[in-house]
Design brief:
By secondary structure, the protein is of the alpha/beta class. It has 11 helices and 15 strands. It starts with a strand and ends with a strand. The protein binds nicotinamide-adenine-dinucleotide and 4-phospho-D-erythronate. Its main location: cytoplasm.
Length: 397
């Protein structure tokens, strides 16, 4: 069996080597001739799987994308050709939810905001949106949830979510059809609904926000002396060529990497591996946990009562007073032991002009999730909250 796999799908050899011959390809450079005699094609979002690509696919039985987004796949065509298709739903949901909270904490620090009295609007409450909601619930943050495909008293209209959100975060798929298309969901008409001091985060798809209209709105705020939007953009209309005029107006810029934790990417590989095994009748004998390396910082100890800094091994000892930091500051300190989104903002600014958007994504440094850090604490309430947020925790006496 021949398995063709995007070069940016981690651990593919480890998972697939005993199922067949594994060959790698560059995501944007895949050409139809490379699909001759291929049985399984595993892509990421930058490969358009359409009629043009499949002209020479004489044996293709399986297409998988190691992503949740499916807007690059002609699913109807695959169904017509009897080619099995799967995405990897949920694989990077935790990665994006962690990234967005990281962004919120940095926006809060940069613009000197307290998150505790803010209303966060989540637009699109699927795998990512609901993961984000769960974490923000732990932090007791007031929410507005907007998802027209879901019902219940907790859901609100887009208009209300835009009007009432101090922080608005987009987590919809990109759709141009259906009852509630998301292409330019935020546009010249409803941008006017945003609060004066709003924080706006997009880690969904660039085209969900009309980037030209956003720029015009930002400029119009300036001329009418309204406060600037506090903007964090991970996704851009027209990738890999983002609208550069938006960059100076964004507190945080990144190159579509919200889902790029090592765990998030690797879970995508594992999900596809399980589907391939099922479809071709193999036993799924490999598990992701056997491949993931230890993080650089694995432990930190928080002592609220008389810690003396004497913890063992490679653990990092935060000062005794850390436990008395404001919750927002403590959380930011812990999260930034794992990863600080300002690193990705710096990569974006340093490399976009010369190396380009795709280069930043392809050379993305390893980033771990909060679960890679064990927080030892003698405060059971704190431990419980940190566990609910996704850290690994241990109690100390
Ligand atoms: N920046 C990144 O690195 C990154 C990573 C992962 C996913 N994404 C993007 O985020 C999107 C969401 O991911 P997910 O895993 O949560 O997907 P999902 O399919 O689980 O959830 C999407 C949710 O959006 C809702 N929705 C659809 N149309 C809507 C509309 N008009 N208004 C409000 N809600 C609407 C759906 O009902 C669904 O609940 C993906 O489709 C992908 O485009 C980006
Ligand atoms: O849709 C997704 O899952 C994400 O946007 C994903 O992180 C995209 O990554 P890519 O496939 O472009 O490498």
């Amino acid at each position: 069996m021949k398995i063709l796999i995007d070069e940016n799908i981690p651990y593919a050899e480890s998972f697939f080597c005993d199922l067949g011959e594994v060959e790698r390809f560059a995501g944007r450079g895949l050409n139809p001739a490379q699909l001759v005699d291929v049985d399984v094609l595993l892509v990421r979002s930058i490969t358009k799987v359409n009629a043009e690509l499949l002209t020479q696919a004489n044996r293709l039985k399986f297409v998988g994308t190691a992503t949740i987004g499916e807007d690059h796949i002609d699913k109807q065509l695959l169904a017509q050709k009897g080619i099995y298709f799967t995405s990897a739903p949920g694989c990077n949901a935790n990665s994006v939810a962690e990234f967005v909270i990281n962004v919120m904490l940095v926006l809060a620090e940069t613009h000197q905001l307290s998150l505790s009295d803010k209303v966060v609007s989540i637009i699109g409450v699927g795998n990512i949106g609901s993961r984000l909601k769960a974490k923000l619930d732990v932090l007791n943050i007031e929410l507005r949830l907007c998802d027209p495909y879901k019902s219940g008293p907790e859901f609100t209209s887009l208009e209300k979510a835009l009007k009432e959100g101090d922080i608005i975060s987009f987590h919809t798929p990109l759709t141009k059809e259906g009852e509630h298309p998301t292409f330019h969901l935020l546009n010249e008409h409803n941008l006017a609904l945003l609060k004066d001091d709003v924080c706006l985060i997009n880690a969904s798809r660039g085209e969900v926000i009309d980037n030209k209209a956003l720029l015009a709105h930002i400029e119009q705020r300036k001329t009418s002396n309204r406060p600037a939007i506090k903007l964090a953009l991970d996704v851009w209309e027209g990738e890999p060529e983002p609208m550069v005029e938006l960059i100076p107006h964004s507190t945080l810029c990144s190159a579509h990497i919200a889902g790029y934790s090592l765990e998030g990417k690797a879970k995508g590989t594992e999900i596809l591996y399980r589907h391939v095994c099922e479809q071709f009748g193999f036993e799924a004998s490999h598990q992701l946990q056997h491949f993931l390396p230890e993080a650089d910082i694995t432990e930190v100890s928080l002592r609220s009562s008389g810690g003396n800094g004497g913890s063992a091994g490679n653990s990092e000892q935060l000062a005794e007073q850390s436990i008395r930091l404001e919750p927002q500051a403590l959380l930011k300190t812990l999260i930034h032991l794992v990863f600080d989104v300002r690193r990705d903002d710096a990569l974006f600014h340093r490399h976009l002009a010369n190396q380009g958007f795709d280069w930043i994504r392809k050379n993305y440094p390893v980033r771990r999730e909060w679960s890679s850090l064990t927080v030892k604490s003698d405060n059971p309430n704190l431990s419980e909250k940190l566990t609910q947020l996704g850290f690994n925790t241990e109690s100390i006496v």
